[in-house]
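Researcher: Re-running this chain for the archive, since the previous output was lost when a drive failed. Same request as before.
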Amino acid sequence: MTKVTLRHKPISKERLTLYLDFYPPIPHPDTGKLTRREFLGLYLFEKPKSQLDRHHNKETLALAENIRAQRQLDIQNLRFGFLSRIKQNTTLLDFYKKEVARRHGSNRQIWQSSLLYLQGFFSEGVKLYDLTVTACNEYKDFLLHANGRRSKRKVKISRNTALSYFNKFRAILKQAYKEDLLKTDLNAKISSIKAAETKREFLTQEELQALYSTDCPLPVLKRAALFSALTGLRFSDIKKLLWSEVQQSQAEGFYLRFTQQKTQGVEVLPISEQALLLLGDRGTPQDLVFADLAYSSQNNNLLRDWVKAAGITKHITFHCFRHTYATLQLSHGTDIHRLKAVRTP
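Model: Regenerated structure tokens:
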């Protein structure tokens, strides 16, 4: 087994630079070549002349010994990422931006918003490899006191928004550790933000009926929202729904067979005749059922205006339609399929 030994060699100004000696040599993760040394960027005074110099030597030796012990554990577990300059030079913001680019739809917009707050706290040059538990907890505190960016008024973001943004940061830490870009599993060492209790709005049968009877400036948005209320589907799953996923059998009638975007689980969901009518005319198997449906601030405003035009004063978002489905299903004696059939707006 490779043994790690702390050694030193003379450099300028009567100093000794510290390095680790690996014997037998270990493979370098960037080049694949065998290597025996890792210079630590630490030095000792060869002839300490003051108490301050002696204190420096003592503290530096203790730090170097801690690093040596950690390297011995890393090598025993065949983890050689500590030698990679590429990994050590990866910045937090660059890695975060790469992860944001992998997201899609409404989820990506939330990730992009969280990136703005990350950029407001961490500087561009901060390396993932250098992150500490202290820095992570300081970022958590920053989010809990941060002001919103959409209004000129200084209004703090909600606790649950801070929770959402911090959880995305923790997801980044978890992924970075998997890729050997972090020295330790920071995600496991920091706690999340406790969620605040919120009032979840939902629509009554009467309010749903009012929305059925009210025109919406964007018909596809109206169809999608009402379809969510009748099926409980998330916006992300409705947006990507294909006609090939709308199926029928003699025994079960019409149903959806689809893969949830959030969980990647395959679902089979029976749908009512009322929900089926909201789909409109069948297209080809690979056509989107709700073509041109998009998540945007403009469409959110159209949804708000439609709800207001129906005489509803509640603060309703698209997710409230999914919550409406669950609430009405659980309500004693309520059958959401009793709503009258509505043809495509």
